[in-house]
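Q: Here's a chain of 231 amino acids. Please give me its 3D structure as C-alpha cells.
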Amino acid sequence: MIVWLRSALFLLWFLLITTILSLLFLPVLALPRGATVWLARLWARATFFGLKAFTGIDWEIRGRPPESAVLVASKHMSMWDTLALYLTLNQPAIVLKRELLRIPFYGWFLAKAAAVPIDRSAGASALRKMSEAARAVLAQGRPILIFPEGTRKKPGAAPDYKPGVAGLYSQLGVDCVPVTLNSGVYWTGFLKRPGIIVLEFLEPIPPGMKRDAFMTLLESRIETATAALLP
C-alpha cells in the first residue's frame, strides 16, 4: 500500500512538472538546439528529484562514461534509462522510432534536442538515413545512443538484439560502449520500489569487428553484466 501511494505521488509530480515545463518553455523550440537541451536536462533532473523524494529511488554510476563521439548501446528496462543516460552523456542523440516525434510537446522537444529517427517501414533505406543522421551528430563530437533490443525488457527476460546496432557500428567506424543497468527492478511500470539503480558503462568495443562477432560480443558483455546486477 505504501509503495502504491508513493508511486501515485510521484506520478502526480511527474505530470505536474512535465505539463508546466512544456507550456512555459514552448517558445524555446524557436531558439537554437542548446536551449532545448538545457530544458530537457532540467526536466530530467526535476523528475529524478521527485523520484527520490517520493519513492526512495536513487542511482549510481559505475565505469567511465564516454566523453567522445562514440556509439553507446544500452540495456533498456524502463523510461528511467533514457533520462539517466541523457543526463550522464554529453548531449547524446537517441535512435528512436519516428512515430515518437509526432507526440505533442514531448515529440517536439525530443526532435529538437536528441533524436536520430528511424522509419521501420522504410526498409533498407531506413539504415542509410539513420547512418547519415548519426554521422552528422558524431561530427559535432556528440555520442549516439541506441537500445539494441529496440524495446524495454523485463529483468531476466530473454535477450532479443536487433541487427540495427550492428549496421550502425559497421558504418560509423567508432567505438561502441556497452551499457548495463537494473532499473527494471525498481521502476516497474506504475509501481516504483525504493532502492539504488545502477548504471554501468562497460569496456568499449573497438571498431572493425565483423558483424556477427560484434553482435555476439555485445550481447554477451551486456547480458553477463546485467545478470550480475539483478537480485
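Q: Can you summarize the key feature?
A: The first helix runs from residue 2 to 24.
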